[in-house]
Predict the structure.
Amino acid sequence: MLIPVPEKLSASAVALIEPWACVEDAYACKERRVLKVNGKMLIAADIRLSENILSEFFEQCGKPTQITWISKFSPPVDLKNTKIKKMSITEIENFTYDDIIYFGSNSETVETLFNKITPKGLINIVLCGDVFERDIKTPVGRIHYGGIRITGASGTNPADSMKYIPETGEIRNSDKINIIGAGGPMGLMHVVRNICHDIERVRVYAGDIDDIRLENLTKIAKPLAAKNDVEYTAYNSKKEKVNDTFSYTVLMTPIPELVGDSILTSSEGGIINIFAGIPASVYAHIDLNSYIKKQLYFIGTSGSTIQDMKVVLEKVEKGKLDTNTSVGAVCGLDGAIEGIKAVENRSIAGKIIVFPDCKGLGLTDLEELGEKMPEVAKYLNNGLWTKQAEQKLLEIYRQA
C-alpha cells in the first residue's frame, strides 16, 4: 500500500495526492454498460412486451441466469428457455437487484423500484412512448454513496438506453463544463484538474455564491486556463444567471434540488457528476422525462483507489498538475483544531497543511503570510504555496 515518491516534490504536494485522487476517481470511474455477470435481475412491465425484444437485448448486453418477473402480462415467448420467477412488487425485498428494467410510465411503480436496487445497481427505464405524469422521487444520495445508476429510453428498446451510458466519467472533447460550488477546496480541484487535463476545446464555467472565493479561484484558474488554451468563466450564481446549457455538470454543493436544476441546464447527452456528499438517505424530485429524453446520465463516486493516486502523482511529477494550488493555509499541530473549525465554518477556501515539525505555529492563512512570516511569503508563487516556501518554513522552526 506504499507508493514511492521522488524527493524533488514538497511534502505538501505529496500529502495532497489523496484528496486530488478523489477528484480523479470522479472522472476515471468505469461505467457498466452490460448486465452484471451472475447478477440478480428484475423486469417489471406495465405493458405487453413484443416478441424478441428481450432476447435481442440479452444478445447485446448479456443474458441473466434467472429473472424475477413483475407484470400482469405473461413473459414474452422468447424467454421460454430462461428461468423466470413471477412475483408481485410488494413481495420483493429492498436493495436486492443488480439490474432492473422497467417498461412503463407509472410514477409510483418506478419510485418503488428505486428501493430495490442494490449498491452499484442499474435501473433501465423504458417509457415505451409515454411519459411520467409528474416528477419522480429519486434517491440522488445513493448515486454518490451507493454507486447506483439510472438510464432510460423514450421508445420500447432497452438496448437503446444502454448506449447512452458513457464508458467512463471522463470529460470529453469540446465539453462545456459547469462546476457548481467551484469556490470551495474540492471545487478548486475540479476546476484546475479539468483545465489542465489536455482535453481539446473544453470550456470551464465556475459558479459559486461567494465573490471572495470566486476571486481567489480565478487568481489560480485564469493563468492556468491561458497556459492550457482553455476558455474559463467565473460567475456568481446568486447574482447572475448563465443562460446556456452544458454538456458536463459537476455538483460540489450537497443540495438535492440542484440535481433537478442541472437536468434543465444540461444539453443532450450530458453527464451530471454528483460529487457533493448528498446523504444516501436523501431523495429529490427529478424530471425523469427530460432526463430520459435528453439521454442524460448521473455519475457519482466516493473515495479513490491506489491507481487514482498513482495517476495524480504522475501528473505532479511531470509538471502537468500542481496539487499545491489547493493549499489555503498552514499550521503546526497546535493549530490543527482551529483548522478543523475553519473547515467546518468554510472560512478558508483551500486545504490546510499541518506540519508537525512547526511547534507553536497556529493556523495561518496564506494571505496572512506576508504580514506574519514575510521570510516565508517571499517564496510564494503569485500567492500560491511552493516547495521553497515549505523548506523555508521548516528551516525556521527547526532552528527555533
Notes: The mean pLDDT is 95. Residues 211-227 form the longest helix (17 residues). Residues 41 and 179 are 35 Å apart (CA to CA).
